[in-house]
Amino acid sequence: MSLTVLVPLRLEALAVRRGLRDPASRVVRTGMGSVRARAAAEQLADALQAGPVGVAGVCGGVDPRLRPGDVVVASAVRAADGSERELPGAAALSDAVRRLGLRCVTGTVLSVERLERTALRAAAGHEGVVAVDMESAWLAAPAGDNALVVLRVVADAAGRNIYHLRTLVDGARALAVLRRAVPALEEWAAETARLVDGQTAPDAASLARKRTIALTASIRCTLPREVT
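Below the sequence we write its predicted structure tokens.
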């Protein structure tokens, strides 16, 4: 099962493609914002291949600990209406990110309908949110029962206006970190595939029992019947 990475923006897609190491991994650009994310989700609902799915891109940092270039791995994604999807793969992915030497925070990522001047303003009214974006909650839908993770990199910290000139520098830094973080997605996907294979493949003891039963049945069929 190969990894599929859903990426909103062209520059984000370029960074992800450059960071991927496995030629079987696939990048799908979905477009920016909730409207395009919903449209992409509808198109992907039937077309998305079975296998692990990642959503990747940049985000706005809400948690005061975050600074531009920090990686955020979502433990859950929340839509503006309050609906949430838990992401159990967050722990494994965040560990893989840290092994790459990158700063990483886990927590709930809020997906908002429209762009605000600051991440704090975008997250107003929502508690327990570490970062905001405009796509992840809707892009999670077509993943269905597939394993899903969300990896974002902070481009603007909590209090900074996104229209500040510094955002251009911080955005470039975030894209560079995104490229470096992508191998963690592939590591997570490979581990997920191994776990799935381990659950579906029969273990050695089970195979031995089946062979014994088959052999016993074969012996019984070949033994001469007792004459009475």
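The CA atoms of residues 220 and 226 lie 12 Å apart.
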